[in-house]
Here is the input.
Amino acid sequence: MSSTETIQELTRKGYQAGFVTDVESDTLPPGLDEDVIRVLSRKKAEPAFMLDWRLKAYRHWLTLKEPTWQAVKYHPINYQAIRYYSAPKQKPKKDSLSQVDPEILRTYEKLGIPLEEQKRLQNVAVDAVFDSVSVATTFREKLYKAGVIFCSFSDAVREHPELIERYLGTVVPFSDNFFAALNSAVFSDGSFCYVPKGVKCPMELSTYFRINAVDTGQFERTLLVADEGASVSYLEGCTAPMRDTNQLHAAVVELVALDGASIKYSTVQNWYPGDAEGKGGIYNFVTKRGIAHQGSKISWTQVETGSAITWKYPSVILKGDDSVGEFYSVALTNHRQQADTGTKMIHIGKNTRSTIVSKGISAGRGQNTYRGQVKMLKSAANARNYTQCDSLLLGDKCGAHTLPYIEVKNPTAQVEHEASTSKIGEDQLFYCRQRGISQEDAVSMIVNGFCRQVFKELPMEFAVEAQKLLGVSLEGSVG
Amino acid sequence: MSLLSIQDLHARVGDKEILKGINLEVAPGEVHAIMGPNGSGKSTLAGVLAGRETYVVTQGRVRFDGKDLLASNAEDRAKAGVFLAFQYPVEIPGVGNLHFLRTALNAQRRAKGEEELDAMDFMQLAKDKAKLVELDSTFMGRSVNEGFSGGEKKRNEVFQMAVLQPKLALLDETDSGLDIDALRIVAGGVNALRAPDRAMIVITHYQRLLDYIVPDHVHVMAAGRIVRSGGRELALELEEKGYSWLGGEGVGASKAKEARR
Here is the structure.
């Protein structure tokens, strides 16, 4: 059997998170105007500053054009056909999980994210976002005792408005780009975390995003602030049902690492990628950025296996002297998936360091573009960057592209860039099979080996998850 | 009773016929050496037996352990006990050497209905077998063949063979690129694996290897056929005269039958 056939066979395993949950939803009709934003803000009982900010963002958005520079193709999005708010009907406040719709709890259970007390992951606090709203946050009390605030964005707006007002939009202003502006206008929920001075967050934090409702856009917003000397490790996971229309997911994540703080942000993205012919799937247009103050560290790790289109560049502004930025990425495109992803490392402070390790895997007719910017400003004396960009091709109908942008304005700064493209070889496969390893296992083993540098950056249990996910996503990959 | 029986085997790559009628019988416990000039088809024969798909068998039969070998794919042949020590072992970056080997061993054990070895038991087994070819533990933690020297790669092949315990080992130019010390180590490992229920086919260009791995039978290939078969002394004759004296040999001169039982 040729590798082509095996991969095709593997493909049939299919997307395993593609079911729909039957819950009653409180949904706004499709369409977007200032009234929709007002209703949304009122539904969430937001303070006036939030509504003002949303409206400003909306008005700015109206002046913007959708970007076209990215190397992805899709039909124009009709922003008036999207529902900007969908929330599962439930009692307004969920002090305990018993008030969460059991259907929703079952959904998370099916996805392997049990929210019930006794089954929770050891030492991982989870905020579960279902369609547009946060339905449950676990371990809130325990974290609160340590001084850590971890809650849904909506709760944070009500309970800690001073923190929101202080930090919201400081890393990704609403004027940043088309999708960030849209998100700023209509974001419905997300997660918020604040780790106070000198506190090491006692557990992993995690948000699990699930799109369920049809024709709904998911616009969540995450804001994470690590105060001086604080440290936190944060994880997000995402899935969606299989639907044959495209759904828009335009999120914004802002990270603030104050002096000496450390933030590790990991993503395992498994939105529905569409079927083998490219029908359906999520458009994942996300803006993620962190600002690193003096001596702090921000590390992004992402495993992107889902979505019809991925467009995201988790970035770090290395503002403070001696700050560190890292970006570790695995992006896999199979069938007709497209990914244009990478990072931006903006070195402003002296002795700033950044590391970029990007692993792109293209299979089927997938197109995978690494787009990365390394910028050393005039002030960035002795700054260093190391970039490694590897592409792996499975089959001959897919594509891999590497687009590095390097700008150095300080003569003492150093930038290193290494890139490689390889094809999964018949020789490698034969070597494995000659030892008795099946073709599927061999492909999955070789690809996992290729990604090892990135997987080892993930927290243990998620590294295992990511490996499994890669195996499933590789279905039909050598074409 | 033969473990391996090859009859009139023809194979091609693309449009080019490379094997043009190979006949060979190998009994358990025997070591056969196949020699011959470059391009004579030695490595192709090994590849065909191991199930490499770039080779297309156009004619002939191969029976292994009583079954039609050509009917099964590469992984099933491996599970049935065919092992190929590669001339050029490939690198698999990021895949741990031991993880790879344990996956292989357990796939083979599952196929035989045996229980899989857990990490601890496997580690013990690997340590024992590594001694055969003088591999140290740092080497075992590295990725499959990645950054290995030529000698290390070949030792790794023999190490894998020691762990997998095949019925038939095909050693494809295992001596190529080895200095004399490495050759001695590799040959020592191979000799330690000689067993009454295991056959080996040692493919080599040079008779040097046969000073260390002493074969029961020697065959000489030229232009896709076995043109001479004999005992140990045939290798020495080749060493002395080179391959050129075989130049005029045709089909009729094949002494392949001598190798039959």
Remarks:
- The CA atoms of residues 112 and 152 of chain B lie 30 Å apart.
